[in-house]
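Exam revision sheet. Question 4 asks you to relate a sequence to its structure. Input first:
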Amino acid sequence: MDLEALCQGNFAALGTAIDDWTKAVGHLKGYEKDAREDLKAKADRAEWAGVNATVSRQFVSTTAGGFADALAQATSIRDILRDTRDELVGYRDELNRAIDRGWEKKPSVVGEQGGGFRVFVNVRPEPPNSEQAVKDLRDELQGILTKATTSDSTASQVLRAIAEQADYGFSGVSYKDRDSAAEAMRRADDLAKPAKHPEKMSDAELKEFNDTLAKYKDDQLFSARSATRLGAEGTLRFWTEMSDVHMGARDGELKRLEEFQKNPSMTLATATLSDTDAMQSWKKDLVDQSNKNFVSDAVNVPGRTVGAYGYQVISSLMHHGKYDAEFLDAYGKQLLKQDTAPAGPPGIGSKNLWHGDNHQLTDLVFGKDDGRDPLVGFMDALSHDSEAATNAFDDKKVLEHVLESTRYTDRDTSVGRALEAAVMGVGVGEKPDGPAPHTATQVGIMKNVMHMVAQPDGGSDLVSKGLGDSFGNMASAYMPEISRAMAGKGAEPIFLTDSALPDGLDKTDVTRFLYEVSQDPDGRAGIILGQGVYTSSLMEAHVSDPSLYDGGPAEAIRTISESTGVIQGIVGHADADEGISAEIAGEKEQNDALKAKGDSMKALAGAAIGVGAVALAPATAAGSLAGAGASGYFGGIAGMAIDRLMDGQQAQGATDRALYQTGRELNDHQASAQSQTRQSALDAIEKHGSDLPPQSTGNQVRDAVNDGWVDSDSILEDAHVRPAA
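Answer key, structure tokens:
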């Protein structure tokens, strides 16, 4: 900035811009509040079905989120402009005061063409010490101009960077002032320097590097700038060499490095959300590096020719954070094409593809894994991004290959979590503020998963391989569709759901799926809890709003209870057939699984998360079941049901066992199902002051559960070969 411009600076235009942005912020606050409290809230409560239940509701939710992003970005721009204007006005006044002081001591100041200035003594003869006075004034003025230039240039740089983050709409980037945004960008530049030579980083430098990432990992300007400064190839080379330098770490060092790995992963995930031209090129370049062989120069290994392939390095940095869905789609297509390339049945060649080279020494993941199977990291990334997960598994061949590959690899847990995200619409660690209705695509994926598990020639092996826990969570979330499939046509008004494809599951596959998954303690716990929550929620819905079903709440309760008997009967028979509960260790395992799953579900409910069984029933006309984000759902009957399922209600008589916590005998499980369902009905009657008679309703529930339980045996005989008595 030149002297004349600052000295004569009139910042009225900048003030006008600030006023305009302040007005925009005020308007956006109103729009954002209306979108959140009115538009989105109504959409969450609306009794939409089919496409409206998913596409329209998602559109409204995205639109509401857009207003929030616009408000954050507009506020940041206004605050940065105001901060910069105030600083420039201050520098202008400081400059003029300095010139006036100089005049008193006889030096004068004049601007020169090109933006410079000259300081000279304006009297003859020159006063004593005039040379020093000229120098001091020149230095003072230059210092003020330098600070003003920095203020102006960093504001321009930051504002331009914020505007570039999103190609369309708003990025939601938020900063309280220009200095914080400029500091984030400066730290990104500083970080790129040591990252180019990780082998030279001392423990102190590594700690500072990690602390910086931890502080700024969610900052989009910092993340995008640090990634582009290092470059796609530089990013992969950095991690290859970093893992090589610290290969074989133990104890405290290993723990520090395990924590350290999270921060680059989350930083890069944030960076991929940026739509700047530089980041678009970075993402494309990263995918292009997939087949490249990265041999580290940090550690000298004579004769070493194989380091780590780009796929392996990229995926090792994907275990944490939510990556951009489009980037995951592009990378996933290339990676899955590679993983499915070996000849033979689906999945069989995956292990040798990535572990076949015994000369490969690189260990890319600090801890138990070695990072050589890139599908593990990629599946973890999908588990945090439900959109990308749904896109990936919508391809039936991909789903079949990935699921079958778990038989031959150790990727089962990561695959399970990715499948959960794909069919539930909620990623691991996400905290949506309302229900997440299933789309037709998600239901289709769930149907295909069930079909694979239901296959008589080895489908059950998928459960025993380590996917049982995730399958149980998925069944929990799909209890409305499962209940409809088991009940058949005509029960639609009773089994409420916002699913876009509520009747999209096959009854035989559902039966076999429930049977197989129920033989895994964690899977069984998910089914028991999900079914209990859905049952209690439905009963509350029909009792609180009798108009939902023209047969009245009494008939609805009977149908719900019979469905409970069928589903819990399948679970109980699977348990008994497997003989798990005959062992004390098996009983403890079941208790532990129920407690862990129940604790998780309670925590999710308390945090208002619409995931799994927490967002199964839609809003009713009376608003009694507006989803996890509204009052009256988990503060009511469903929450009480979870408490009973977890803590146990002591049974009377010879069994003297906690409710649902043994399943040691079929009659124990049946009695538990009766008691739980009966109590949920009575809780709903009491809470809503219903005129339904408690005693006869309880008896009706008992009979219906028993009828369903008997039916479950016949249904299983038709669908599954069972052990001989």
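Marking note for examiners. Residues 580-585, 603-635, 649-664 have pLDDT under 50 and may be disordered.
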